[in-house]
Design brief:
By secondary structure, this protein is α/β, with parallel strands linked by helices. It has one domain: Alpha-Beta Barrel (TIM Barrel), CATH 3.20.20.370. 29% of the residues lie in helices and 15% in strands. It contains eleven helices and 16 strands. The strands form four sheets. Strands 1, 4, 5, 6, 7, 8, 9, 12 and 15 form a nine-stranded mixed sheet that branches. Strands 11-10-16 form a three-stranded mixed sheet, with helices on one face. The chain is globular. The two termini are 22 Å apart. The N terminus is likely disordered.
Length: 384
């Protein structure tokens, strides 16, 4: 396995000092909150200063941060029929390139090097098509390293099942199906995970963010207590979960706890997810700082197993997206360097009563300067 380069480690050193950066990535420095469940007071510090106020000495619980990885193979792009999924797993989940792996195994190694944990949403319906061996390999990889397995479903696999699961009904999203059908689909995914050796599965995420309230009711009937399908950029499109008002923190819905993927509005007012390919390091830094300052109960971050590679046609070798590789490294360094403020957890470790927020806090916002910086960074990343 390739290790993170020394140059990358040196480049990210400023993040190890504090949540404060100078220039386009600057954000206000938070201090410890004084009263439980109230926004934390802030004081100004010198630009670039690597220090926090020490006026408040009361202990504060760090904010739980859930690092989630969606690991999936799509039936229409992966060439899975070539060898019953082996090539597809190597390409889309392990991220094999001419510079080594940059997929799930590599991502978990980077996360572990910084003392963090991950929740891996494993797409499990495909197992009914390609067999259990590949899923068992992934479940073993995740659990032996101390991370958590969660259920991920892409309904695009339904037409390829050897025996119909929901008759001849088809759809790209979970909400294309009735509640009863959705329960059958989830139960099949859970059974596949169990056969592959998965321990207690507590969380679900719908493929393509295609969940609705019926999805949550089906999840409850299937014994799942946490859903994390809420994806604000897709609201009123593929994501049919409540959008008025928008949800930013954990909330009870239809008998389960809905934990949204963290999102924010950028300097142009556009909704952006807290996702590796969608945020600059400066935006991550700013969002984490604001969430701490505003007394947020939980932060949920997203990446995919294939997010560090450029995927081409199956015949063409993949290449590394170095911009995303560096973002992952620096995000992990940022969390590790601020362990008194953020704690890496899995869904199964959460005290769900302590993370519920009522009322919902106002959405996080990022300054225009950081939006412009991200555009420049993304443009550079297309050729770097």
């Amino acid at each position: 396995m390739n290790e993170v380069s020394l140059a990358d480690q040196q480049a990210a050193k400023p993040l190890n000092k504090s949540l404060t950066a100078h220039g386009p990535e600057a954000c206000a420095s938070p201090v410890k909150k004084t009263i439980a469940n109230q926004p934390r007071a802030r004081e100004k510090i010198r630009p670039g200063a690597a220090q926090y106020s020490s006026k408040v000495s009361l202990p504060v619980e760090p904010v739980p941060v859930i690092l989630t990885i969606d690991a999936e193979v799509a039936p229409h792009t992966s060439d899975w029929k070539r060898d019953r999924g082996r090539f597809a797993i190597d390409r889309d989940i392990f991220g094999i390139t001419d510079r080594g792996e940059r997929g799930l195994r590599y991502q978990l190694e980077v996360i572990e090097q910084h003392g963090l944990k991950a929740v891996v949403f494993l797409e499990a319906l495909s197992t009914s098509v390609v067999g259990t061996d590949l899923l068992k390999e992934l479940v073993t990889l995740v659990q032996l390293r101390g991370h958590e397995v969660a259920l991920h479903i892409h309904t695009e696999w339904l037409p390829y099942l050897p025996r119909p699961l929901v008759g001849d009904r088809r759809g790209r999203y979970m909400h294309d199906f009735s509640e009863d059908d959705q329960r059958r689909i989830m139960d099949q995914g859970l059974e596949n995970l169990s056969r592959a050796g998965a321990e207690r599965v507590v969380a679900f995420r719908a493929g393509n963010a295609g969940a609705s309230l019926e999805t949550l009711r089906a999840a409850l009937r299937s014994g799942i207590r946490i859903d994390s399908s809420y994806f604000a950029p897709f609201l009123n499109r593929s994501c049919r979960l409540p959008s008025h008002p928008e949800i930013s923190q954990a909330i009870p819905l239809e008998g389960v706890i809905e934990i949204p993927i963290t999102w924010f509005r950028d300097g142009l007012g556009r909704i952006r997810p807290a996702q590796l390919c969608a945020c600059s390091v400066g935006e991550f830094e700013h969002l984490l700082g604001r969430a701490w300052t505003d007394g947020w109960r939980i932060i949920t971050l997203l990446l995919h197993s294939f997010e560090l590679v450029r995927r081409y046609s199956p015949e063409r070798p993949q290449t590394v997206v170095r911009l995303h590789e560096r973002r992952l490294l620096r995000l992990c360094q940022l969390l590790a360097a601020n362990a008194e403020k953020f704690v890496s957890k899995t869904f199964g470790e959460l005290d769900t009563e302590n993370i519920l927020a009522d009322p919902q806090p106002s959405c996080l916002r990022s300054p225009l300067g950081q939006t412009i910086w991200r555009y420049l960074e993304q443009a550079t990343g297309r050729v770097w």
